[in-house]
Task: structure prediction
Amino acid sequence: MGNNNKKVWRKSAAVMGAVAIAAGALAGCGGDKEQDASPAASKAPGASSEAPKAPYKMSLMLTSYNPEYLDTNGEIFKKLEERTNTKLTLTWVPSSTYSDKLSATVASGELPNAILVLDQKLPYIVNAVRSGMFWELGPYLKDYPNLSKMNDIALDAISIDGKVYGIYRERDLARDGVMLRKDWLDNVGLQVPKTIDDFYNVLKAFVNNDPDKNGKADTMGMAESQVSGSWRSMLVWHGGPADWEMKDGKASPAHLSPAYMETMKFYKKLYSEKLINLDFAVVKDGKQLINSNKAGAWVANMNDAQGIEESVKKVVPTGTITMTNALEGPAGLRAAGGAGSYGTFMIPKTSVKTEADLKAALNFFDKLCDEDMQNMVVNGLEGRQFKIENGQYVKTTDSKLLVEYGMGDSSQLAVLRDKVVTYGGPLVHLRSEMYNKNAGIAVANPLQSFVSDTYSEKGSELNKIIEDARIKFIMGEIDEAGFNSAVEKWRKDGGDKIIEEYTAAYNNSKK
Result:
């Protein structure tokens, strides 16, 4: 990276291990409560001089997941303005229409001081960056006490052409794992699985051994969806790459790895033995199957666990959920690493015209990262949005105070989350423990920081070729030869060009 902030996440010693792993691979990518509080960052010398004397007029556009937006007359909004020394304007856009709104806003050139970009590799964003529409932020980050501590792996993942144009919203490096009905495990006499083979045996027992003790053969093993949440993790557990890898000096997509075929064969076995829902190819949200007491396993972001247990208890009051972070496979214990972030705030030159204004905008984001600010936007204000009863976080039911909190949407403003206090019961803390374990075994995509113009243009349609063939293979509609034919079509229709572009970008970064 252009800056010198060689920092790692201060989550745990395990995370430092992940940084070491991912740094080697990269030498050449809803408001949940993250980790326990850590000491506040010390102030960098001279950083306070960057803060404007008069409130800076700061405007942002970002997505909302709730019908009620953050109350501009509420205490949280007032504290946001006071602590960041801004006159703040927030434009909230419903998540269902955010993509279209963002595209239209960028095309118009009439942008606020910062916009939230959920995918910075979209062609129109890349083209806007290359045309000079956005500020390069990398060289400035070292001057701010909090922003200077942003993680290099996450910064690398959001970079475009090797440069940082955004302030990322931090997330744990590897968040997926296996969530299981703990009461079902107990009823069939099995432990939480440690290996892929263990998991297969658990799924068989969930289907065949009456785990709900109702005397009927009405339970299924793992819930699956049309867009599989489990596939990426299962592939890495089988020894495959996280999306892409460098192999023999060339970029290589996951579907060219031998592990991809082995993983498809595993899913085909689950399908033929009816250990997953046979209608998975048309199911939009498989999580509802475990929520409704029909399935015993769900592989996805472990942040789902608390909500799943709450849903299960509405059907079966004694139902409980547990989880594990990864399943050991032929290559050992591995987890599918992500970008370490979800969305970036980008600052346009069309609305932030001078370097002085840029520094004022960066001061806003830096102040958002102070310990009390992180906790306010994620958890709310104690005594208003929540209280602690017997050590538990209890959110208010007062609708006015919830709107003051944006019904939780204020967390969309969180940039760093390293000082956010984790509140919740055993599952919330188990999730944090599992995130940290995953970080130490995370497999990174070494190409996530690079741009392939062909992939930006045709990636979605090319991905569909492989995804459709994968589903057909699992359902027995095509064999290995049929899948290989789909791969050849992928290569011919643009895949080989993507490989060429990623290879060139990776090799150029080494010069």
